[in-house]
Design a protein that fits this description.
This protein is an alpha+beta fold. About 20% of the residues lie in helices and about 30% in strands. Strands 3-4-5-10-8-7-6-11 form an eight-stranded mixed barrel. A hairpin with a 3-residue loop joins strand 4 and strand 5. It is globular. InterPro entries: LD-transpeptidase, LD_TPept_cat_dom, Transpep_catalytic_dom.
Length: about 190
């Protein structure tokens, strides 16, 4: 009985050892002030940022989004990855495929596409800042040389991380998108599954 209890304790403790928390990136004074205006509350451990063994099998520098799991992986060397929780497109607006990062922007302006304005006439262009839906950073995605109009970006709704609630973009907690932004190189490959 004692051996079974010990084995069970080891099995239950093991998953905690597989996930290594990653410290928050350094922030500028403006980043810290604006991000404080979008309180994140308690982060569900399932969607927290961790260093893990790479589950994707992709090359280092690749971003992989697993939409069903609501997880984004940034692949590192030595078969490791950084895992982030995300919000994905709801069923009507979700997408999958391969793209590349063609532009990166801090506190980007938001210019909603015409299709979105048609669906929701109340949306309008907005300067970058804490109320902006794109949040602290944005990675702009292209298919070849064509802008897909999809982004990986921060959010002003961190409580929706882990849900299918966007119009197709991949949303991240602002502190997480800053961390990813600092890691991603030009023309990084993005795979959305």
């Amino acid at each position: 009985m004692r051996r079974h209890c010990l084995a069970l304790a080891v099995v239950l403790a093991l998953p905690g050892c597989l996930y290594k928390p990653i410290p928050d990136p350094e922030l500028s004074a403006q980043d810290a002030a604006w991000m404080a205006m979008v309180p994140e509350g308690e982060v569900d451990r399932l969607y927290a940022r961790y260093l893990i063994d790479d589950p994707t099998g992709e090359a280092p520098g690749t971003i992989v989004v697993e939409t069903k799991q609501r997880q984004l992986y940034y692949v590192l060397p030595d078969r490791k990855a950084v895992r982030y929780g995300v919000t994905v497109g709801d069923e009507a607006y979700g997408w999958s495929g391969t793209a590349r990062v063609f532009r990166k922007a801090p506190w980007p302006d938001w210019n909603p596409p015409a299709e979105m304005v048609k669906r929701w006439p109340h949306v309008h262009p907005m300067k970058g800042g804490p109320a902006n839906p794109l949040g602290a950073r944005a990675l702009y995605l292209a298919d070849g040389n064509r802008d897909t109009l999809y982004r990986i970006h921060g959010t002003n709704e961190p409580e929706r991380i882990g849900q299918a609630a966007s119009s197709g973009c991949i949303r991240m907690r602002n502190i997480d998108v800053v961390d990813l932004y600092n890691r991603v190189g030009p023309d990084a490959k993005v795979i959305v599954r």
